[in-house]
């Protein structure tokens, strides 16, 4: 589970990497402090190691990486201030990895605040530096590091957002794809159970779509799919989510809707498609199946019931709506 999470959760992966590397870097100094009899610094370094190890264990066992990341940034910031005050310039050097890691672990605004406070407090205190020149050099170099880390984090976040959008959207219709659907069905189901609110699902399949492709070619079929997706989205509420499930089959997630809400919505969509969509082969119709999430079923069972209802609509003659209440 955690190994799979390393590949799919960027924040978790960065947090695990930082904690692991920091443990490897700080632990030898803990041993050194006790060997030379510097008990106070040994205790401080031990506390930092304990925070790193505890956080690593927490997230590896499935804990939320967001609050754990914030905890680590706060801990390392305070640790840098304390160690620099006690050992001087060599302690202030730990602020550089702490600054860089902060921009990868937490929101940029928070990371900028933490880094700015760390740099300013170290520079204003002055006790960590042997001379005014050393203090000015630290302030300048740390500020440049902070600025570069901010720019890098912003650029990385924009790239990740673009990649995630590309990876979760159907390039033809603009609807979300199956990858996004799996994630959002899980979130919707958990939210519905937590708030004891209904959530509905509609599976829609264009009738005799193969005839359009066979008679007019895939370009005409693609045009029908694009028009269908636009039509459905124009009839959706702000919180509804449309997914392309595959081929001419689409799924509509309808939060806050029970069977009594799904039926009129599904029938409204069916009538809108029949009235508005046309091809040289004739009118385009759609068969719709719906299902409301039950307390004792998982997402796959929920989707399977909606899919079965859609096939029942096909069996009843197509251009029909069947809702499994």
UniProtKB/TrEMBL annotation:
- Boundaries of every GGDEF domain copy: 197-325
Q: Which GO terms describe its cellular component?
A: plasma membrane
Look up the record and give one Gene Ontology term from the biological process aspect. Answer: cell adhesion involved in single-species biofilm formation
**Transmembrane domains' residue ranges:** 12-32, 39-60, 66-88, 109-129, 135-153
The molecular function GO annotations come to: diguanylate cyclase activity
Could you say which EC number(s) this protein's record lists?
2.7.7.65
What catalytic reaction does the record list? 2 GTP = 3',3'-c-di-GMP + 2 diphosphate
Q: Which cofactor does it need?
A: Mg(2+)
Q: Does the keyword Transport apply?
A: no
> What Pfam families does the record point to?
GGDEF
Keywords per UniProt: Membrane, Transmembrane, Transmembrane helix
What is this protein's name? Answer: diguanylate cyclase
Q: Which organism is it from?
A: Cognatilysobacter lacus
Instruction: Print the organism lineage.
Output: Bacteria, Pseudomonadati, Pseudomonadota, Gammaproteobacteria, Lysobacterales
